[in-house]
């Protein structure tokens, strides 16, 4: 091959290699440009919202379902009939205090009632005698067989006898009241269960001496495990969305795969402040059977379903940005992306409600555009 032909072939190969390299660079730059020049967008649409509020709480006894049982009098605990975990029925005897002195007081009061009743019998006899004497003196005065002074004396004795009978009857009432009081104090020595439930704690042991002061000494705590509720602590941001009657579900760590259903029964007006976070206690009444499953103080993860809202303006949540304390979106306009301040509402999964600032059908960017100076700001 001649030298001239070899040179031409070499030049052709160099030109082909240069053209291939240029085409590769063009393709890479074109793809890069395509990716950066076509940002991901979404349209402002209308959709139904079924938002929820999440909260953490605990299983608690209902009001009146946890009772601390104590003694109203001082004394030594002679018998303690229950222990932690025992099931009790309403009216069942839980403990007994020493009561010899109380029984003696009852016997004394009973004797005093009998004495008072005997005094009534005596007073009634005196009344009968005084009545007869007064009648006799009045008959004698008619025939001038006695003096007026004797008649007046008989009348006075009659009145005195009747007064003595009334006094004796009042003394019987006092003695009977004292007897009733003695019986009541004696009943305090026998401690009974005010509700049915399970013994949650025992704070007094058999043989100990308890002293009743301003606060009654607690013997045991009874919890009715069939009357439980969930106290959910809802953040102050969401408490305005919660209303009584709303339905919800909750799970506990002991049964993570099982959902228990309930309804919002009450909202406590006072806030619960924990680590400078303001929460409100929302009481959820349990509507599912839970006997033998739930126990007080179990941690509950509560989801409350809010009322559905139909056909509200919405965009994907990632389209809303937070800048300088304001919620904004980037709207795709004819002149390029423009910043628009918006007012947001409920969240439903990956969607968020737009209460103000956008119109249906507008297109928004899901990511912040690379060139911030390319659009107008409408604040």
Chain-wise SSE layout:
Elements (H helix, E strand, L loop, with lengths): L2 H35 L3 E3 L1 E5 L2 E10 L4 E5 L4 E6 L6 E2 L4 E5 L2 H43 L5 H41 L1 E3 L4 E6 L6 E2 L7 E6 L4 E8 L11 E6 L2 E20 L2 E10 L12 E7 L3 E8 L4 E3 L2 E8 L2 E6 L1 E6 L2 E6 L6 E3 L11 E2 L1
Parallel strand pairs: 20-24
Antiparallel strand pairs: 1-23, 2-17, 3-12, 3-16, 4-11, 5-7, 5-10, 6-9, 7-8, 9-11, 12-15, 13-14, 13-16, 14-15, 17-22, 18-19, 19-20, 19-23, 21-22
Task: Describe this protein's structure.
With 379 residues, the protein is α+β, with helices and mostly antiparallel strands. The chain has 4 domains: 41-50 and 310-378, conserved putative lor/sdh protein from methanococcus maripaludis s2 fold, CATH 2.40.420.20; 54-62 and 224-308, Efflux pump adaptor protein, beta barrel domain (Elongation Factor Tu (Ef-tu), domain 3, Beta Barrel); 67-98 and 189-223, OB fold (Dihydrolipoamide Acetyltransferase, E2P) (Beta Barrel), CATH 2.40.50; 101-169, Helix Hairpins (Orthogonal Bundle), CATH 1.10.287. 31% of the residues lie in helices and 39% in strands. The protein is built from 3 helices and 24 strands. It has helices at residues 3-37, 100-142, 148-188; strands at residues 41-43, 45-49, 52-61, 66-70, 75-80, 87-88, 93-97, 190-192, 197-202, 209-210, 218-223, 228-235, 247-252, 255-274, 277-286, 299-305, 309-316, 321-323, 326-333, 336-341, 343-348, 351-356, 363-365, 377-378. Strands 1, 18, 19, 20, 23 and 24 form a 6-stranded mixed β-sheet that branches. It has a 6-stranded antiparallel barrel with strand order 3-12-15-14-13-16. Strands 2-17-22-21 form a 4-stranded antiparallel β-sheet, with no helix packed on it. A hairpin with a 2-residue loop joins strand 14 (255-274) and strand 15 (277-286). Helix 2 runs antiparallel to helix 3 (148-188). The longest helix is centred in the first third of the chain and has 43 residues, at 100-142. It starts with a helix and ends with a strand. The model is unreliable at 30-36 and 372-377 (pLDDT under 50).
């Amino acid at each position: 091959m001649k030298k001239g032909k070899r040179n031409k072939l070499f030049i052709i190969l160099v030109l082909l290699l240069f053209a291939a390299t240029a085409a590769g660079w063009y393709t890479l730059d074109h793809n890069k440009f395509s990716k950066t020049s076509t940002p991901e967008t979404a349209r402002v649409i209308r959709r139904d919202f079924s938002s929820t509020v999440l909260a953490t709480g605990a299983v608690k006894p209902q009001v009146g379902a946890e009772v601390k049982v104590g003694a109203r009098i001082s004394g030594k605990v002679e018998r303690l009939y229950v222990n932690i975990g025992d099931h009790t029925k309403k009216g069942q005897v839980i403990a007994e205090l020493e009561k010899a002195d109380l029984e003696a007081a009852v016997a004394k009061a009973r004797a005093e009632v009998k004495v008072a009743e005997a005094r009534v019998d005596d007073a009634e006899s005196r009344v009968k005698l005084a009545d007869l004497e007064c009648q006799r003196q009045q008959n004698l005065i008619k025939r001038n067989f006695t003096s007026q002074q004797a008649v007046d004396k008989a009348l006075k004795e009659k009145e005195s006898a009747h007064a003595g009978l009334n006094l004796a009857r009042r003394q019987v009432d006092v003695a009977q009241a004292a007897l009733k009081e003695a019986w009541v104090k004696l009943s305090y020595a026998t401690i009974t269960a005010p509700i049915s439930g399970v013994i949650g704690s025992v704070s007094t042991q058999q043989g100990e001496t308890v002293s009743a002061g301003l606060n009654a000494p607690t013997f045991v705590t009874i919890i009715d495990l069939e009357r439980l509720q969930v106290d959910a602590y809802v953040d102050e941001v969401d408490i305005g969305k919660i209303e009584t009657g709303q339905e919800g579900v909750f799970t506990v760590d002991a049964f993570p795969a099982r959902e228990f259903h309930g309804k919002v029964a009450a909202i406590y007006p006072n806030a619960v402040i924990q680590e400078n976070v303001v929460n409100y206690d929302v009481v959820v009444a349990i509507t599912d059977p839970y006997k033998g499953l739930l126990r007080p103080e179990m941690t509950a993860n509560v989801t409350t379903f809010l009322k559905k809202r139909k056909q509200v303006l919405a965009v994907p949540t990632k389209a809303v940005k937070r800048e300088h304390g304001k919620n904004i979106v980037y709207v795709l306009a004819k002149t390029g992306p423009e910043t628009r301040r918006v007012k947001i509402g409920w969240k439903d999964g990956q969607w968020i409600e737009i209460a103000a600032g956008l119109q249906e059908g507008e297109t928004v960017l899901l990511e912040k555009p690379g060139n911030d100076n390319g659009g107008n700001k409408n604040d």
